[in-house]
Structure formats: structure tokens, C-alpha cells
Automatic annotation (TrEMBL):
This is Subtilisin-like protease SBT1.5. Residues 383-472 form the PA domain. Residues 584-688 form the Subtilisin-like protease fibronectin type-III domain. Belongs to the peptidase S8 family. InterPro entries: PA_dom_sf, PA_domain, Peptidase_S8/S53_dom, Peptidase_S8/S53_dom_sf, Peptidases_S8_3, S8pro/Inhibitor_I9, S8pro/Inhibitor_I9_sf, SBT. Residues 34-118 form the Inhibitor I9 domain. The lineage of its organism: Eukaryota, Viridiplantae, Streptophyta, Embryophyta, Tracheophyta. The active site is at 152 (charge relay system), 225 (charge relay system), 405 (charge relay system). It comes from the Eukaryota. GO terms for biological process: proteolysis; response to symbiotic fungus. It comes from Ziziphus jujuba var. spinosa.
Amino acid sequence: MASSSSLLVFFFFTFAASSFASSSTSSSSAGRKTFIVQVQRDAKPSIFPTHKHWYESSLASLISSTTNSTNSDPATVIHTYETVFHGFSAKLSPLEVQKLHSLPHVVAVIPEQVRHLQTTRSPEFLGLKTTDSAGLLKESDFGSDLVIGVIDTGIWPERQSFNDHDLGPIPSKWKGQCVAGNGFPANSCNRKLIGARFFCNGYESTNGKMNETTEYRSPRDSDGHGSHTASIAAGRYVFPASTLGYARGVAAGMAPKARLAAYKVCWNAGCYDSDILAAFDAAVADGVDVVSLSVGGAVVPYYLDSIAIAAFGATDAGVFVSASAGNGGPGGLTVTNVAPWVTTVGAGTIDRDFPADVKLGNGRTIPGVSIYGGPGLTPRRMYPLVYGGNEGGDGYSSSLCLEGSLDQNMVKGKIVLCDRGINSRAAKGEVVKKAGGIGMILANGVFDGEGLVADCHVLPATAVGASSGDELRRYITAASKSTSPPTATIIFKGTKLGIQPAPVVASGGTMLDESTGNVSTVMDFGAGHVHPQKAMDPGLVYDISSFDYVDFLCNSNYTTKNIQAVTRKSADCSGAKKAGHSGNLNYPSLSVVFQQYGKEKMSTHFIRTVTNVGDPNSVYHVTVRPPRGMTATVQPEKLAFRRIGQKLSFLVRVQARAMKLSAGSSSTKSGSVVWSDGKHTVTSPLVVTMQRPL
């Protein structure tokens, strides 16, 4: 017999749903979209054996009050969540969402986002060498007992990167499964790939049943992205390895002996939040140590960001979460997955390149890159060069070399200059080849900048930067009006190592911004280029607890209900706000934005706490390099530790004077705070942005 209090909770839910009944019931199911509903876990009435039963019954009661009995589109639970999040996902109408918001044990109703997907030498470039007698790889046994959960497009288990040769038994903590499906038998897993699942309910709820002739209803990867990211994280040593003959060598991931678990959430139409959250939930319950996620979307407040919420739950359970920074550059404010409890990783170059230069009829050589592996162009022969935008009925479509846009009579036997955008880079080559073109030059647009991507192509092709694209168009236009028509050829130079500049681990040199070629700023490189070997002995670390993040959200003016949606913790923000501001989160970096409201002088302070993980008796002295034109001081100037694990705090004060700025503009300057004991150097970037409001 259920307790009276439990029954009251159940009847309240039913009554609340009934009390909102609308006369326009026939239209209430129209325009349903997927929402993720967070509930208070301990509010479940005892008459229900599981939370899923409670969610399904409650949802049915809610829906019945707003729809007629003949409704052919009843709402159903898409997923239930138990580990990193408590609640369920379902397709709901606006009226149903409104009703759910009003219920006391519903913490949040979050609209679903659709997310999108964002090499052999990397370990060596980062200083991780298999030949070293000591170091991170050796001391960690190449990550042997680590379990990495990859949330992506699935995995291709037959790849040699995922063989289990000489690996020990599966870690005893592992609770995951190898879920069979289309093209993926249950024996696809081994001691390397120890788990595989797929999540498609959210995808199919929005798009209908998947077309199983074009994608697998299983963990098998029909895209390649998931297999790629999994091999980067934990691929075994594979030799010989190359791509169409380029980059020959040993292919390996960063932790070659780590175990992998694949969680497929990305499908032809994208990666749906309800499925991503289900994958996080399963991964943490299965026993992963690390979650790697290379998808992203729009930046929204944390309490509306399912990835941020799931990542917090995973982090709170002791799981390290790494996510991609996105492919939205090179402009400002384009990074994604920005929650401070997530390690957000951006792309960088290494000291390897695949040059494929364009030689023009006027003698100029324009640098480009490619990993085209087919028959090359005839040596020392120059080919007619045309711009796609001049050779089609629709100048815009043909400039982008979209399907069916090129006039075969105008491009046959010629090298075609195509602009980047709309369709994929490789697809443009297909279009040129179908039209009879002999080769392709792919030019970046202004928003792509000068950063180049070396692609596999179906015909001789190379990629050039935005400024080179402009030069090529000018050359084509001018030469077309002269007695010497525009000509070009592409010279493929294979794989080159030791390319400079690159963010070489051993350098004191400054990294460059790939998009412009200029010196990068802290807003470009963030925390900087990773140095795994130094991470073994950093000297000092900046520890953060879950409750520090609660204080951070309080100081970011989140409501207590918003904070509960993110952290599943009750929050009393009165004490946190008295303690400081959001900049006091115990991060190594120090950043402030000053709004110039006619003030001549502005100031702020930061409080930081460092933990000694170096020598027991160590003394650190500070060196302050304030941003140009500003002052910064640190108190105390010396930190004397007496034991490992000891924590000491310091205060940083920053003062700035108003700058000459036009309305709506801003200026960012950076400096640093550096602690050193003679053996370790611990650097914190100090960034000040001055803004003048409109």
C-alpha cells in the first residue's frame, strides 16, 4: 500500500495536469518539439516501481488533459536519464511545456538542440615518444586501464587501431555492453573496444524512422568521424600507415593501451541532445574514466545546454570530460562547449605539411596543400585556368562549384578555381570532374582566412588561402583580357616535416594565428599548447570542487532553480555573492571586462588558491607582467609550502585607466602572473578587456 504522502504527490501531478485543460484540445499536439525534462529524483511516489513508470504515467496524464481521445500522435517518453541527469525526454506541445514548468518537482524543461560534428605524428609532436625509458606513456603503461568513452558517429571495429593484441583483461570495474545491431555483431568488441552502444530515439522522434540503406542502426560508423576521433584518443600502434601515400609512418593515439567504448549519437541529420544526454548517462554508469565529445552547437546559458549539464554530472562523478572547441573560426566568439567544468580543446597545427603549390603562367607560385593521391598533372605542362564564377549560368552557384552549376563546354580540360562554402570541399572536386575539368584550386573565403585544410580529392586539386584566392581571380581577369590567357599547374610535393612556425613543444616562440599569419593572442590560444610531459610534474595546481562551480553560477547571477538544473544541488547564493564575483572561480586564468561608463579609473581583484604537488619544502616567488598601460599587484609575493597537498592563497589586484574607445568598441590586452620555485614555472594569463557601451 502506497503511503498517503506518495499518493498525494501522484494525485497532485494528475490534478495539476487536469486543471490546465484547454478548450482547444484538438490543436494542442500541433507543433510538438523534443524537450528534456529534469525532475527531482526523490519526488517519485512509491507506488511506481521505477522512475520510468512514473514518467510514462505522469506524461500520459498530462497529455490526456490537452488532447482528444482520437489523437493519433500521442506523446511518449523518448529516453529516461538516471546517472548524470534525472528526468526524461519527450515531444511536447507549447501548452504541455507550460504545464510542466508549473509543477513543483519539475526543475527544468530544456528545448533540444541539434548539434553537428566539428593524425599520425601528433603524439611525437607533443613530446610523447615510445622509445623513452621514462615519461608519461611509460609510467601510465600507455593508458592500459583507462576507459575512454567516445560520443560520436560510432566506430568501425575492424580497423587495426582497435586490435587487442597483448592487452590484458578488461578492467573489472567495467559494466558496459556491446550492443549488436545492423552490421555490428555482438562479437565486434574485444579487450580494446570493450563497449559499444547506439542512441537514435531522439533522432527518429524528429525525423522518422532512419533509412537503413544509408546508415546503420547499430554502433557501426557509416561516417568515419567517430572512428577517427576514437583512434586519435586511443588508437593502437599501426605500421605502416598513410593516407594515399602521404604522412607515412606509425599511426597511434594518445593513449594506445587505453580501452575504448563507443557511444553512437550522430546520424545523417545531426546529433540530437536527447540522444547525447542518454549517451552521457550510459557512459558514466558503464564506468568510463574519460568522455570525449567532438560535437558542438550554439552557445546558450548553461541551464539550457544539455551538454554542459551532462558534463557537470559526469565531472561530479569523477569522470574527465573533453570536448571540441568547434570549427567556427577564425572570427571571435566562435568557440563552443565553454562550460568551465569541461576541458575545451581547439585545433592547432603541427610541424608537418602537405604542400601542393599552384604555378601560374605569369611565373608566380602560390602555396597550397593537398593529399591527392591519384595520377598527377603532366610535368612542366601548363593548363588553361578558369574561375567557376565566370563559367556557369548562375555565377553564385558556379563560383562555389555546386552540383550541376558548371558549363562542361567552358571547363573541359581546364583547372577550375572554386570558392569554399555550401557543399563539402571534396564534393566540389566531384563537380569539376563531372564537368570535365582536369584539376581544381579551392580558395578560402574571407571568413575562412588563411588556414588551410589538406583534403583527399578525386582529381588533382589543392587548397589556397583567402588572399591567394583574390590574387588568382585578379590574374584570371587580367590575363583573360590579354594575349596570354591564364594558365596554371599544380605541383604536389608530398609530406614535409619540420615545418615552421608550428606550436613546437620545446619553443619560447609565440604561436601564430593560422587564419592571418599574425602573432596570436590569449583569446586565440586560450590556455596554450598542451605539454603532456610537463603535466606529470606541474609543481602547483588549481583545484576546483563542485561547490566552487555552484558559487561561480551564483556570482554569474543564475537563479537557485537555474543552478539546480545544472548541478542537481541546492544553492544559497547569499554567501557566494558576498565572497566576490564570477572571476573568483579558482581557474589558473584571470580575466576581467571593464565597462567604461565615464569612469576614469577601474579596478578589481582575484582570489586564487594553489595546491602544492611538487617538492614538500618549496618556495615560490611571483613575477607580475601587467597588461600594457595597467597596473597589477600580487599579495603575498612569496608562497612557502611545507608539505605536499598544502594549499595557499594569494590576491591579485588590477587597476586600469579609461581608454579612448568609440561607442560599442572594445580593446583587449594581456599580461601574466608567474610563480616559480626555480624548478617549476606556473603561468596564469591575465587578460583585461575595456569596453565602451553604445
